[in-house]
Amino acid sequence: MELIAISVYGLDRKGIVKNISGVLAENNVNIVDIEQSVLQGVFTMFLIADVSRCRIDLDELITQLKESGREVGVNVDVSPFKRPETKKKNLYIVTVLGEDKVGIVHRISSFFYEMGINIERTNLTARDKLIAIDFVVDLDDEGAKKKIKEFIEGIGMDVVIRPYREEKSKRLIVFDMDSTIVDAEIIDELAKVAGVEEEVKRLTAKAMEGELDFKSALKERVKLLKGLPVEVLEKIYNEIKLTDGAKELIKSLKESGYVVAVVSGGFSYFTDRLKEELGLDYAFGNELEIENGRLTGRLKGRIIDAVEKARIIEEIAKKEGIAKENIVAVGDGANDKIMIENAGLGIAFNAKKALKEVADGSISKENLIGIASVLKLKNEFKKRF
């Protein structure tokens, strides 16, 4: 093949692609690669074309292409093209999220350059003050992912790194509830009413950090709630707030075809209510035992700890016919570690260090809606730079 590179750029208008491709077709020139986009009203297109069977000489072809471009108000540049030697690439998408900062693209691209990492593609979108930048990069060294996370978090941004691959049509996303979908630790709210807040918080912190066996810690905390009237559960549900962006994110996930679940070490009274309010497909939590309208201080049935969370997710995926690589897990504590590790994409949300270390990326409390950009949802970040 005898290849040429054709660059087309100018203000966007109808007929540009038709004109340029028409000249090539009329002269028996085959397009072997093409990429076209419109950014802020500016049209750009890059083509690689095979001219080995062109009916006219190259100079005449270039003249016709430039004339065709002038007819629709764009510039056309043509140059010889030789394919570089290719090697198998190990492509990843590095999504950077946070508040916009002057020079942020330069800082990150400079870091990649210093590490010897090639950027294959870059895309930036914005939603209000939150920006999302996708870098498609070739990573040969597994250790590079850790260095990238440390650098991005060090400049005050969130980052998620995942393999570059074709998206599948059916996908599952699983959220933790407390301090993830809900902006509270519900058991702490119950403890305030019961007058045992400090004792429960101490046990909660130890469990979240992985310093205390979850089942034992949960049983001890629930025991402290003995005697609370069931009306307290309703009152607390009405008072707790969803994490900023949670409702919008779940709506967009549903519209994009995701199966959405909450699997929590919290309580089923609240997960069931969230399922109803948010239109979730699945909701699982631990069941509080109630007798004569009051909590007994005991749990009913199985206890959902880290292992049980992972097992429930496997059950959902099997039932829905969803492969492991198409599962996304989002959580904040030690009880989420196994589901984060097992998922195709594991995201640590406002999380402790232990969870960040096993996750594919981490997102800050104020950036939950950024998951929409990571997953390229239908209604994500409609405002563009």
Can you tell me about this structure?
The protein is of the alpha/beta class and 385 residues long. The protein folds into three domains: 78 residues, Alpha-Beta Plaits (2-Layer Sandwich), CATH 3.30.70.260; 75 residues, ACT domain (Alpha-Beta Plaits), CATH 3.30.70.260; 204 residues, 3-Layer(aba) Sandwich (Rossmann fold). The strands form two sheets. Strands 6-7-5-8-15-14-13-9-10-11-12 form an eleven-stranded mixed β-sheet, with helices on both faces. Helix 1 runs antiparallel to helix 2 and helix 6 runs antiparallel to helix 7. 38% of the residues are buried. The C terminus is likely disordered. Its EC number is 3.1.3.3.
- Residue fraction in strands: 25-35%
Basic shape: elongated
Query: How many helical stretches?
Result: 14
Find the structural class using helix and strand composition.
alpha/beta
Q: Which superfamily, in CATH terms, is the homologous superfamily of the largest domain? A: HAD superfamily/HAD-like
C-alpha Rg (nearest Å): 27 Å
Pattern of helices and strands = EHEEHEEHEEHEEHHHHHEHEEHEHEHEH
Low-confidence stretches: 381-385
Spatial sequence of strands, sheet with the most strands? 6-7-5-8-15-14-13-9-10-11-12
CATH third-tier fold name of the largest domain: Rossmann fold
Proportion of helical residues: 25-40%
Assembly level: single chain
Number of strands: 15
Cα distance spanning the termini:
39 Å
CATH architecture of the largest domain: 3-Layer(aba) Sandwich
Largest pleated sheet: 11 strands, mixed
Summarize model confidence as the mean pLDDT.
Answer: 90
Question: Could you name the CATH class of the largest domain?
Answer: Alpha Beta
Domains (count)? 3
